[in-house]
Every structure is written in structure tokens, then in C-alpha cells.
């Protein structure tokens, strides 16, 4: 059942190519516009590059979250998933994994280009990619909770942003601090370990929370 739901999410995403392309276009546009707003000075850009990349990654991840459960709720798919003999939390984990594969993985692959556009030192590129690899699953996991809670709400996108952005602040702090430490040559293993711990905790608990939120939305 998990593999079926995972494949279905990928198939639906391929059919709606705008859901895949729009977050990446938004990311590129924002990163490209920042040098025009703050000036092209390489030192300034390098200093603020970690924060810019992570803030835009956070915001771009919110673009497709509203549809994560809304369409399934409207066509009755969520009700069928709730009646499945497979634990609902495992089904929700497969939806979270599919969302990360479609949004987080392309962002990680695009990160060297973003780093180059913002003049981030090459010594920090690996740390940037590691921080995204460790942190983007948390964006999908926590984002899925908010998407499930607001699936049946009108104008759920605005409500979703209000719920999720405060929850992402710890991730933003530790992720940008890890990249900034790499820029100045300081050790950052502890910060990356905290990111990994936050992601493991979220992936452990969020499927249960999403399953409970889905049942509330269905009922």
C-alpha cells in the first residue's frame, strides 16, 4: 500500500508539471533578485548567502503544500486511505517521502548554482548541501502536519503559512549557522548533528500527527 501511494503521488506530480517547476522558478527568481536589492558586492552576498538560500527554500516548500491533502480530501481518496488495512501513519510517511523527493531533492541538486550566484565560498558548498539534505525532510514532515490540518479550510494557504513558519525557525537558525561556520572555517559538526536529530525526530513523530490530523479533516 505504501509503494502504491508513493507511486501515485509521483504520477500525479508528473502530470501537474507546474507543481514541480514553480517552486524552483520561485527559488531562482528570489536568489537572482537579492543581488539587485542589496548590491553586487561579493563580501556582502557571501555573508548573507546562507540565510537567503534557506529562507527561499523554506518559502518555496510552502508553495505546493496546500495541495498535498486538499485534492485527496475533495475526491474522497483520504477516506479510502483511512479505511485501508495498512496503518495510516505509514501511508502518510509515503506521502511525506514523495513530497521530499519532488521538492527537497531538486533543491539540493540546484544548491551549487544558488551558491555560485550568491558568491558563497566553494569551501561551504558541501556544508550547504549537507544542511539541505538533513533539513529539507523536516520541511516536508512538519509541512505535512500543517497541510493535513488545513486541508478542509478555506484559504488554507495563508493559514498554512501562519502555522508553519514559526515552527521552522529552529531549523533556519541551525542550518544557516552551520553554513556560516563553514564560511569562516569554524567546526560545524555539532550544528549538523542537531539538524539530523531534528529531522529524525520529525520523521518519527510527524506521520502519527499527520494521520491524526487527516482523520480530523475527514470527519
Automatic annotation (TrEMBL):
One of its GO terms (biological process) is cytochrome complex assembly. It is found in: Cell inner membrane. Its main location: membrane. The chain crosses the membrane at residues 20-38, 44-65, 97-118, 124-151, 158-179, 191-214. One of its GO terms (cellular component) is plasma membrane. It is a multi-pass membrane protein. Belongs to the CcmB/CycW/HelB family. This is Heme exporter protein B. Required for the export of heme to the periplasm for the biogenesis of c-type cytochromes. Keywords: Cell inner membrane, Cell membrane, Cytochrome c-type biogenesis, Membrane, Transmembrane, Transmembrane helix, Transport. One of its GO terms (molecular function) is heme transmembrane transporter activity. Pfam families: CcmB. It comes from Idiomarina xiamenensis 10-D-4. NCBIfam families: ccmB. The lineage of its organism: Bacteria, Pseudomonadati, Pseudomonadota, Gammaproteobacteria, Alteromonadales. It comes from the Bacteria. InterPro entries: Cyt_c_biogenesis_CcmB, Cyt_c_CcmB_bac.
